[in-house]
Structure formats: C-alpha cells, structure tokens
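Honest question from a wet-lab person: if I give you the sequences of every part of a complex, can you actually get the arrangement of the whole thing, not just the pieces? Trying it with mine:
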Amino acid sequence: MTRPSRIPAPGLGRITAPTALGAAVLLLWDLANTRHWVSDLILPRPLDVAAATRDLFASGLVWGHLRATLYETLAGFGLAAALGVGTALAAGASAVVRRMVYPYAVTLQVLPMLSVAPILISAFGFGATAKIVIAALVAFFPVFVNTLTGMLDPDADAEELFRSLRAGRRRTFTGLLLPTAAPMIFAGLRIGLTLALAGAVVAEIVSAQEGLGFLVQRYSSQLNQDDAFAVVAVVTGMGLLLYGAVGCADRVIVFWRHAGRLPAGSRARERRVRRRLAAADRSTS
Amino acid sequence: MRLRGVGKRFDGGVEAMRDLDLSVAPGEFVSIVGASGCGKSTLLRVIAGLVPGSEGTVEVHGEPVTGPREDVGLMFQRPALLPWKTSLENVLLPIRVRRRITHDDVREAMRLLTLFDLEGFEHGFPSQLSGGMRQRVALARLMMTGAGVRLLDEPFGAVDELTRETLNLHLLRVHERTASATVLVTHTISEAVLMSDRVIVMTSRPGTVAAEVPIPLERPRSPEMAYSQRFQELALTVRRALGPSGSEGGRPS
Ligand SMILES: Nc1ncnc2c1ncn2[C@@H]1O[C@H](COP(=O)(O)OP(=O)(O)OP(=O)(O)O)[C@@H](O)[C@H]1O
Ligand SMILES: [Mg+2]
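Yes, you can. This is the full assembly:
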C-alpha cells in the first residue's frame, strides 16, 4: 500500500531518522579504520577526530583561526549580499539595467574562482582582503539570481490590482515586488553564505598565515590527519551555525511562509490595532 | 459609465471585441454572460483602464478613461490577497496606496469584515482562511475602494455552490444599499438573472453584444425568487440568446 508522501511514516522521527543514518556512517567509517580497509594515514578513527577537536578548543589554538575565517566569511558575504540584492533589485525594477548587468553576472558565475584566487592574492596581498574579495565573488551570483528571479515573478492578479489602485512605482516596489521576492532573497542568501565560507576557506588553503583553511593545509601537509579532520569538523560546524542563523532570520522576516509563525503574527497585529483604536477613542472622548 | 463602439485587437491579431456599446447607470446592476473566450475579461480590463481599447470611447462619470481610476474598482476570479498581510490589512490596501490610514478607515474596514461574516478573522492571514473567506476579504477590499463603478470578473467562480449563494447575497446586500454601478461577469445564468437589472449576452470572436435582457424583478432580491415562474422565463430568454450549445467553441462533452 502506498501512502501520501506528506504524511510522515511512523517509526523514524525527525531526530531519530538522521541520527540513525549518521550512526551507521560513523560505524562504517570506524570499521574501515580498525579493519584496515583504509590506511590510518588517510582516514583516522572518528573518536580520535573527536578528541582532536576537543583539544583544538581546549588548547585555545583554534580560536584565532576561527575568528579570521569567520571575519572573512561574514565580510565577504555582507559585500555579496549588499551588491547582489542591490543589483538584482535595480535589475528587477528596470529592464535596461537588467540587460546591462545580466551577461556579466553570468560570466562571473562561469569563471572558475580557484583560477583567479592566486591573481587576487597577489593583487590584494596575503591578508584578509583577498579572502574577503574571493568570498564575495563566489557568493554574489546565487544572491543576485535568486533575488532577480523573485523580483520578476509577482502574482499577475496582484500586479493588476496594484495598477488598478493606481499605486506608484515606489509603492508597488515596497508593497508588492520586495515582499514577493523576499523568500527567494533568503534562499539566495542561504546559498551565498555557505559559498562565502567555502570561498574564504579555499582562499586560505591557497595562501594564508591564519584561518581554518590554513590550519587544514598545515596539518594535512604534516600528515596529521586527526587534526586536519578536526579542523574540517570545525568548519562544518561553523557552516551549519551560519546556515541556521539565516534560517532564523528567514522565519522572522518571511514569516508568512512558515505556517507555525502565523498565529503569533496575528496576535501581535491584533494587539497593535487594538492599542491604536483604544488610543484614538481616549483622545476623542 | 458608458461605452461607445469599443473594440479591442491584441498585438497577436486576436480581435477580442468589436463595436461594443454599453452604458450602466449609477445604482444599476448589470451582468455579462457569454461563452468562454468571448472577451468578457478584456471588456472589464478596458473599462478599468488596465488595457487601452483599440477603438471607440469609454467614459466614466462623463470623463474618458485613459488609465486606472480611483472611482473604478475591480475584483478578479482569484482573490489576489497579499499573503503577508492580515485580512484587515488587505482590506485597507486601497487606502494605504493613496494616503495615511486613519482610525476611521480601520473602523470602516472592520465593519466591512463583520458585514461579510469575517468577525474573528480580521487579523488572520490569507493562508489561514478558506477559499470562500478569501473571496469575501477581496469583496470587502473592493468595497473599501469606495469606487462608484464596481467590476467583478467571475468573482465566485472558484467556490462551491452553497458558498457562492452566500457570497452573492453579500454582494446583493451591499449593492442594494449603495448607488454604485456594478458589472458582474459570470458563467451562471441563474446568478446573472438573480442579481441583475439587466443581463448582457455576448457573442464570441469578436465579442459584441448579442442581446440585452431586462430583469424587472423587484428588489430586494432573495434566493427563493429563483424558483418563481417569472424567473424561469427570464433565465430561458437569456439561455436562448446565448445560442445553441456547442456552437460557440464550448468544450466537447
Ligand atoms: N493579453 C492578450 N494578448 C492576446 N490575446 C489575448 C490577451 N488576453 C486575451 N486575449 C484573447 O482575447 C480573447 C478574449 O479573452 P478574454 O479573457 O477576454 O475572454 P473571456 O470572455 O473573459 O473568457 P473566460 O470566460 O474564459 O474568462 C481570447 O481569444 C483570448 O485568447
Ligand atoms: Mg475571463
């Protein structure tokens, strides 16, 4: 018997299902090491990686590098978000701007960023600037394309409604186009942020004196796989946290796409309207 | 509201309307029936100033229509509510676009929502409402425009029979107490007869007026009237004017 896919199957829940898969993979990974399917020099044991991760934090060694990578990622992402959303909003509002910038946005996307990394590093030096620029370059396109797609796809009826109400360009933009694009903007930001992190780390691997990418590079060249894996775990954790942060912002700002958030929104609006009307009643009486 | 010799040819060469005359007085309720694709929606869009006509003149309150006007309100088949706004905020949208919202506007919007049996749902979001409720919010929004000319394009086409009857009653109630000119596009003959002072029958490609059937039933109207002899005769007249079934490109059965 088949069941509708929307109804979750009984047995494995939202927590247990992924945990079960994760545990199975870890077990297989550990077996690969202890049974010597794979050399110790390539694949350390999961528990050793966990211990190495703990030591990285306990010794305080990782913090400086973590801060450097976080800074490059956030700065690069901020730049990409501002430029990507800004350019796409302009391109969405004006067909001329759209025709102007679109080919270059695509070119930028097609360009393999790793190939220009050395050039950018020699141009901007070995410090954070080059990494920020690279992070921004890789994060730009998804933000731009998603925002633009969202801008160009308003509900035809709603658009006609705004026209029939004689809403001006600004009103239509803020009242219709921007909220319509908001879910897509956040989808773009989510991808952009993870790409910014990847860009920063890769740039650090190419050439750096600090940062998590630099650490991975150093440990693995020393054949210190426990620590190299531990740093990768830290990068992954950081990526997940950043991803979650954008998710939270999405739930707050694009609340209407999250059914669970509607009741709270209703109550807040009801209180606001009540308060205003009550204030008006007091001032007239 | 008055149309003289209005025609519309789209860029692709489709002639949606030709030489169409129609006038609707304040307080009058006119329905338009006709086969699918005969140009009813296009006609409403031209009256609303959303698309320019190719020939002829459209006048509202004696002035030629050159674009959307504040005194012409429009409602579509789909409610077109903004999902990030509550019912109340959606109803207030026409005001919001024009000027600052006052407390009286809020009270008026609340009153309209109550009138359409939406008490308790003023602060709900569209996705929390049923299809019929959304249409009622859209109807309240149309009323909120305060427009003297109301154009409704199959407003209740997507809801079930019973809900539709209630919605029609709502519409009748507000129409009978205001002096606006209402044009309703519908596919349902009985609905057209029940609501209207006049039923306009349109023919296909190019769309033009084939017949006008006056409906001299007294007001206020009630759904029970639909079972009277007079009503049935009027409905039959409209049906005959539409021509034999199948001759207008209707769906094969
Ligand atoms: N934007 C457009 N460009 C070209 N042709 C169009 C356009 N809009 C409508 N038409 C054509 O004009 C004709 C009339 O369309 P219209 O939507 O007014 O019909 P209708 O009577 O409202 O039909 P229905 O009852 O199915 O809603 C159709 O043949 C349609 O293909
Ligand atoms: Mg239509």
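Two things worth pointing out. The two ends of chain A are 68 Å apart (CA to CA). Chain A has a mean pLDDT of 90.
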